[in-house]
UniProtKB/TrEMBL annotation:
Entry's Gene Ontology cellular component terms: cytoplasm
Record field: catalytic activity: 3-phosphoshikimate + phosphoenolpyruvate = 5-O-(1-carboxyvinyl)-3-phosphoshikimate + phosphate
Limits of the Enolpyruvate transferase domain: 6-423
Subcellular location as annotated: Cytoplasm
Binding site for 3-phosphoshikimate: K21, S22, R26, S167, Q169, D315, K342
Keywords noted in UniProt: Amino-acid biosynthesis, Aromatic amino acid biosynthesis, Cytoplasm, Transferase
GO molecular function: 3-phosphoshikimate 1-carboxyvinyltransferase activity
Organism: Acetohalobium arabaticum (strain ATCC 49924 / DSM 5501 / Z-7288)
Protein name: 3-phosphoshikimate 1-carboxyvinyltransferase
Length: 427
């Protein structure tokens, strides 16, 4: 699909973006490993989460309503998964693959996981190595770093793992493997990453010990099926937040957005940028804080984005780069080298495409520097690199370009935000 975006100087409306991708993945995983039924509402029907659900179906888990936002997962219990008869294809989803490896490591069967061209290039050693220390047997290309990966389930031993990277996927993988080990498995991260796994494990009845950057789980717990209400995804909402902030005349309300503090780093940055936004009707749903966000056009100020906030807004950096083009002063994005190992190298992709749009930007190894405000010329065809967040960030930039832009290979948007284009048209 090619997406054509015409400049638009007014945006208005009240919208609800789809369910949180991280929470949707975890609702199927824990629902499958729990005893009894898990009823999920607001499930994200993006390809990434569907791939997680399909993988569990292949391992004998009955799921009603797959493909819709309301699903019932019939849990098989911690030790009830069955050997899949075919390869588990996890498409474009790093979260599915890394978390699944933690679960598969402790099964009493053999499984193979694979993914698309992008996922097959992403580093898996970051989970394969610590799982190996727990006794897992995982084989793959590049010494076990690249998919396809073969997992021969084993009896796992607990361990304390000091992760060199602040990654919720690494942390969650080890905690999920820890469910199968005897004794206490601990993960210590260098900075706090999103904690949806911890919150949902507790919600499903597992006892965790959380002490700052250290999280421990005791093996062989009993998980109990629950009702899960998935909040709207703040990462998806961010495209609309920024679209409104940089627009001439905008007033948007984004409903029911998940505001877990380990995810909502973008709000901290937008506050520093003097963005005009307000949180309405703050509440708590299944251990996760949510609110509506009202956002207006703003005169943004430049800021430095780096350090401990990075894991709390890692997926929002491409759209923050677009916001930075309209901020007064020099915006610096640093400590964000993790962006280079996402669906594509997101630093290189954003720098290349912003330049194509007529924006001046300096590339750095761990981020970029963007002076502003600058006008976005447009009148060109941009590449998505088959990365949903690059495609959507460029679409938002197109709304304030001087001339229409085109984004090629925009189908990837459906991995995380299937109705992005419709919502854009609505506002
Ligand atoms: O755990 C998760 O649900 C995710 C963690 C992050 O990845 P890393 O753990 O690799 O930083 C994020 O980029 C991804 O979109 C979802
Ligand atoms: C990096 C992302 O997801 P994943 O790692 O699950 O592919 C993302 O959604 O931006």
């Amino acid at each position: 699909m090619e997406l054509k975006i015409k400049p638009k100087d007014k945006l208005q409306g009240t919208i609800k973006v789809p369910g949180d991708k991280s929470i949707s993945h975890r609702s199927v995983m824990l629902g499958a490993l729990a005893e009894g039924k898990t009823e999920v509402t607001g499930f994200l029907t993006g390809e990434d989460c569907l791939n997680t659900a399909r993988a569990f179906q292949k391992m004998g888990v009955e799921i009603e309503g797959l493909g819709s936002e309301e699903m019932v997962i019939h849990g098989v219990g911690l030790n009830g998964l069955q050997e899949p008869e075919s390869i588990l294809d996890l498409g474009n989803s790093g979260t599915s693959m890394r978390l699944m490896l933690g679960i598969l490591a402790g099964q009493d069967f053999y499984a193979v996981v694979t993914g698309d061209e992008s996922l097959s290039k992403r580093p898996m050693a970051r989970v394969v190595e610590p799982l190996g220390d727990m006794g897992a047997e995982i084989y793959g290309r590049d010494g076990g770093n690249l998919a396809p990966l073969t997992v021969i389930g084993q009896n796992l031993t607990n361990q304390e793992y000091q992760s060199p990277v602040a990654s919720a996927q690494v942390k969650s993988c080890i905690l999920l493997a820890g469910l199968y080990a005897d004794g206490t498995t601990t993960v210590i991260e260098p900075a706090k990453s999103r904690d949806h796994t911890e919150r949902m494990l507790e919600y499903f009845g597992t006892e965790l010990n959380i002490d700052g950057l250290e999280v421990s789980v005791i093996g062989q717990p009993k998980l109990k099926g629950q009702k899960v209400v998935v909040p709207s995804d703040i990462s998806s909402a961010s495209f609309f937040l920024v679209a409104a902030l940089i627009n001439q005349q905008a007033e948007l309300i984004l409903e029911d957005v998940g505001l877990n503090p380990t995810r909502a780093g973008i709000l901290e940055v937008l506050t520093a940028m003097e963005a005009d936004y307000e949180l309405l009707d703050k509440r708590l749903e299944n251990q996760e804080p949510i609110a509506d966000i009202k956002v207006n056009s703003s005169n943004l100020q430049a800021t430095t984005i780096g350090g401990a906030v990075i894991p709390k807004l890692i997926d929002e950096l491409p759209i923050l780069a677009v916001a930075a083009t309209q901020a007064e002063g020099e915006t610096v994005i640093k400590d964000a080298e993790e962006l280079r190992v996402k669906e594509t190298d997101r630093i290189s992709a954003m720098v290349t495409e912003l330049r194509r749009l007529g924006v001046e930007v300096e590339e750095r190894e761990d981020g970029m520097v963007i002076p502003g405000p600058q006008s976005i010329k447009g009148g060109c065809s941009c590449r998505s690199y088959d990365d949903h967040r690059i495609a959507m960030s460029l679409a938002v930039a197109g709304l304030i370009a001087q001339e229409e832009i085109e984004i090629t290979n925009a189908d990837c948007i459906k991995t995380s935000f299937p109705n992005f284009v419709e919502l854009l048209k609505d506002i």
